[in-house]
């Protein structure tokens, strides 16, 4: 696993400013992100480096820190499992990789695949 993918996964799996977990805790579910396989979905907006695919922060547009406002934005559609207690968590449904520059796309594809394999609930 390369450094970029490791950094991305850390930002996706830990709590703190700019983390995916903290953003999704406050995110409304359903709405524009709809439902996937009976799981409500939310959108996780993020800013990323277009050269490397390193995710700089997860944040809604109005809350992006100044230092990251110049980076392009993208979104992950994330299913949320609220059923039971054993399998609660997130699963990245899609993220529209065709819209990304090639190097960023490769690193983000690796990030999503590893996240879903090692950290996501099993749908």
Topology at a glance:
Blueprint: H1 3-13, H2 20-26, E1 35-36, E2 39-48, E3 55-58, E4 73-81, E5 89-94, H3 102-118
Antiparallel strand pairs: 1-2, 2-3, 2-4, 4-5
Helix pairs in contact: 1-3
Question: Which keywords apply here?
Answer:
123 residues, 5-stranded antiparallel β-sheet, 5 strands
Report on the structure:
The chain is an alpha+beta fold and 123 residues long. It has one domain (3-116). It is built from 3 helices and 5 strands. Strands 1, 2, 3, 4 and 5 form a 5-stranded antiparallel β-sheet that branches. It starts with a helix and ends in a 5-residue tail after the last helix. The model has no long low-confidence stretch (mean pLDDT 88).
Summarize it.
By secondary structure, the chain is an alpha+beta fold. Helices cover 28% and strands 25% of the residues.
Compute the separation of the termini in Å. Answer: 25 Å
Any idea how many domains?
1
Low-confidence runs of at least 5 consecutive residues = none
Task: Give the mean pLDDT.
Answer: 88
Radius of gyration, in Å, reads: 14 Å
Number of helices: 3
**Strands, count:** 5
């Amino acid at each position: 696993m390369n450094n970029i993918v490791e950094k991305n996964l850390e930002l996706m799996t830990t709590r703190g400013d700019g983390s995916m977990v903290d953003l999704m805790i406050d995110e409304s579910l359903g709405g524009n992100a709809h439902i996937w396989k009976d799981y409500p979905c939310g959108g996780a907006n993020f800013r990323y480096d277009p050269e490397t695919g390193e995710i700089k922060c997860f944040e809604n547009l109005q809350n992006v820190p100044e230092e990251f406002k110049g980076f392009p934005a993208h979104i992950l559609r994330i299913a949320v499992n609220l059923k039971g207690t054993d399998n609660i968590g997130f699963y990245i449904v899609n993220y529209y990789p065709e819209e990304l520059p090639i190097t960023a796309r490769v690193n983000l594809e690796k990030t999503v695949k590893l996240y879903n394999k090692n950290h996501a609930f099993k749908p």
